[in-house]
Amino acid sequence: MGTTSFLTRVRGLLRIRNQLVRECLAELLSTFVLITITLGTAAQKVTFFETKGNIITSYVGSAVAVMVGIYTAGGISGAHMNPAFSLAMCLIEQFPWWKFPIFVVVQTLASFISAGVVYILYYDAIWHYSNGTLTVSGPRETASIFATYPADNISIANGFLDQVIGTGVLLVGVMGLMDARNKPVPKGLEPVVVALLVLSIECSMGANCGCPLNPARDIGPRLFTYVAGWGPEVFRWVEGRG
Question: Where are the coiled-coil regions (predicted)?
Fold first, then answer.
């Protein structure tokens, strides 16, 4: 009885009543889950020479991560996990503009933290694979574990168009799924359908630039690589990286 009363008091003390704080923490957690799994699939694929992961496991893992992220915080913050989605919600007046910069900062921060966690998790494998040198280009580059870079011979214009189209298809698909006037998705299965949408985009548009579809997913980890030892080259457009 005493233990139950103590736990009740502790829960009361730890309970967060401010709605904005609750939403920010939920957004932080959902984005952290999404990016940690996504970067983890890339680290496993790259550092183990594709013997314990490949492009398919990366696509499936990152798509399932979207589903898990939505289930984690969808009922609290909406689990945007993506500044592009937050912006789209503002444009259709489903999300207040004043919250937009706050969510962008939270999503980017979560992605930065995720990159740090994956770096620690695969620390030995990264340094072994890279022969002790953290590079953005070359046969043993490891920067692409964290951020997305263009494939060989992809121009800036083509890369920009690639991201616009990929993100646009994602947003159109998600907005269509959210529209109550369309054929509804069975209640509770919305995250599964969004994950399948992401998987289909990755399978069809992932070759040019890695298909980030999410500015926070790229900016946060890219900032991490900058401070963690890869240097300013992570911000340069690198063609013919192999």
Answer: none
